[in-house]
Amino acid sequence: MYGRAVDFHVSLSGRGDLTARIYRQLREAVLDGRLHRGERLPPTRELAQRLDVSRNTVATAYERLTAEGFLTSRVGAGTFVHTGPLDHVRPRTAPAGAGVRPRAQWRSIPAFAQSAPSPATYDFSVGVPDPLMFPLETWRRLVAHVLRPSAVRTTTYGDSAGHAGLRAAIARHIGTSRSVLAGADDVLITQGAQQALDLVGRILIEPGDRVAVEEPGYPPARLLFRSLGARVTGVPVDAEGLDVSAIPDGTRLVYTTPSHQFPLGTSMSLTRRAALLEWAERHDAVVIEDDYDSEFRFSDRPLEPLQRLDRSGRVIYVGSFSKTLLPMLRLGFLIAPASLRPALKWAKQLTDWHGDLVSQATLARFIEEGLLARHVRKATREYASRREQIERILQADFAGRLDVVPSTAGLHLCTRIAPQTTVEVDGWVRRAREAGVAVESLAGYCDVDPGQPGLVLGYGSIQQRDIAEGFRRLAAAVR
Questions:
Q1: What is the pLDDT of residue 446?
Q2: CATH number at residue 61
Q3: Distance between CA atoms of 253 and 209, rounded to whole angstroms?
Q4: What is the mean pLDDT of residues 62-82?
Q5: Which distant-in-sequence residues (6+ apart) come within 8 Å of 92 by Cβ?
């Protein structure tokens, strides 16, 4: 019932005698929640020495608070915040700042996934891997090795490019698994793909520059570029990928997910890749190749990445381990042409210096010991089984209502409403949520209004035993 001791700050500024000032600040701390019920306050002698006042001054304040029911004194144990309910408890908040405003573009950018909805019993959320498949015990063993005393005796910060061992491991990993051209010095470690996009935007985008993104596409990327002052234009995606002919003149930067287009799941054809690279060189533009969600490939050999095909140094390759391992690890990387690397490293140092070196060193060992490749193979088999089950149910129970967009990789399936079908997809999503099923609308990934009607169904969060019941409830919701 009675908890830890707290190191509480007391200021002697303000009105009243010293006892009144100490009393008032302790009382306010209890009422606004800074001091929790059951926490032990510093002994009167200790607090008096810290404040350079008499012990009696502190003791009198404690006695008054005890008499009023805010504190409880236990002989031989100390003085504690009262454990029972207190009247007039109010949360502490920062000043409202009514006269302070962000830059204009921040007032026009909508929040995306700012607060996660309550968990659903049958969760088909997009972009979330199965945490039960994460090799937790192995990861803990590697973390313990990284944190051994001899390894943490350093008095300096690390390289802003990230842990040297991880950069070397990533260069080898993506060289063999993706055929990306890179050495350790070409790799810059980031806290996920989103930070990589932010760094690229910081060094390349001037306010007013035009940036092209896929439509439908990844909303956080679109919103990030817009926050940097760019004019963001959506470019249609068809069965071959980004429509290069629709990229507006004057575009400075193109963001694309060619290996596994998000959210449709299609791959950019080799012809379209060559056309995009030719366009970038002709228009003096840069291409960000986000290798989104392509680790889990179920059929077809992957095409050469844009970075491999690039001959003029215009492609920045971005990758992440959020879907492969866990989103909470916040580990990613980028590989940029040599001409951009100094600016990117400097931008990284100015924003967060070098990130979490413990996680980086752990991932380096995870890759070097072959554990990442083993985990990907195991997870791919499991996700393939879930995906096949979902496809069978869609073909059997949703034929004529939902058409599956063909794809060969990733953690989700995209569906479109069948032609000549008039439905309110948002109503489907809402009724499904009421039935305990979480699905997402394809229109939510579109910037134009109205967006493309359809559903996006993830299979990382849901166990295979729950898929059939989840779809049974979804079918009832969409009738």
A1: 92
A2: 1.10.10.10
A3: 8
A4: 91
A5: 32, 33, 34
- Find the distance separating the first CA and the last CA of the chain, reported in whole Å: 52
pLDDT tens for each residue of 118-174: 678 999 999 899 999 999 999 999 999 999 887 777 667 889 999 999 999 999 999
Question: Token pair 């491999």 is at which residue?
Answer: 308
Domain membership of residue 354 as a residue range: 133-370
Total Cβ atoms within 10 A of residue 359:
23
Helices 18-31 and 55-67 sit at what angle, rounded to 10 degrees?
A: 40
Instruction: Let me know if residue 110 belongs to a domain.
Output: no
Residue type, 141: R
| CA dist., res. 236 & res. 233, Å (int) | 10
* Number of structural domains in the chain: 3
201 and 326 share a domain?
A: yes
Same-domain status, 341 and 300: yes
Query: By C-alpha distance, which of 259, 295, 260, 266 is closest to 133?
Result: 295
C-alpha 264/C-alpha 430 separation (Å) is 22
Structure tokens at 133: 């498949």
Q: How confident is the model at residue 116 (pLDDT cuts 50, 70, 90)?
A: low
Q: Residue 468 is part of a domain; what is its CATH number?
A: 3.90.1150.10
Domain shared by 196 and 283, yes or no: yes
89 and 30: one domain?
yes
Whole-number pLDDT of residue 40? 92
| Per-residue confidence (pLDDT) for residue 3, from 0 to 100 | 63
Residues 219 and 358 in one domain: yes
Residues in the chain: 479
pTM of the model: 0.89
Say how far apart CA 260 and CA 295 lie, in whole Å.
Answer: 10
Name the residue among 12, 40, 38 with its Cα closest to residue 25: 12
* Same domain for 292 and 172: yes
Q: What is the mean pLDDT of the chain?
A: 91
Residue 334 within a domain:
yes
* Window from 92-106, 185-199, 236-250 with minimum mean pLDDT: 92-106
Transcribe 406-473 into DSSP letters: P-SBSSEEEEEEPTT----HHHHHHHHHHTTEE-EEGGGG-SSSS---EEEEE-SSS-HHHHHHHHHH
Asked if residue 145 and residue 55 are part of one domain, the reply reads no
Contact 411, 459 (CB under 8 A): yes
